[in-house]
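Task 17 of the worksheet. Students: predict the tertiary structure of the chain below and write it out as structure tokens. Keep your answer in the requested format; marks are given for formatting as well as content.
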Amino acid sequence: MGWVKENLARENGKVEGLIISKSMDENIRYALVCISNIELKLYKFENDKLILIDSKDAYIKAHFEKLTPEQKEEFIRGILRQIRDNE
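Model answer:
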């Protein structure tokens, strides 16, 4: 991304990055927190077709599965409150 910004981007040009990985670990997550304009897509194969998954959805799903039933219910209530508040 740095090379592209210095050599190809026009003045004040925006450079965006994309990481495609089979999994997301804490190291990748921490790196994404520090780097702006970069996105992570996870991939998998289904019936010999490449499927890209938004990493945010995968991250939320992985952590949601670790919650107790009561925590899941509270999480969902919180999301519904945010939706109502933003309407």
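Marker's comment: Residues 2-86 form one domain. The chain has one domain: 2-86.
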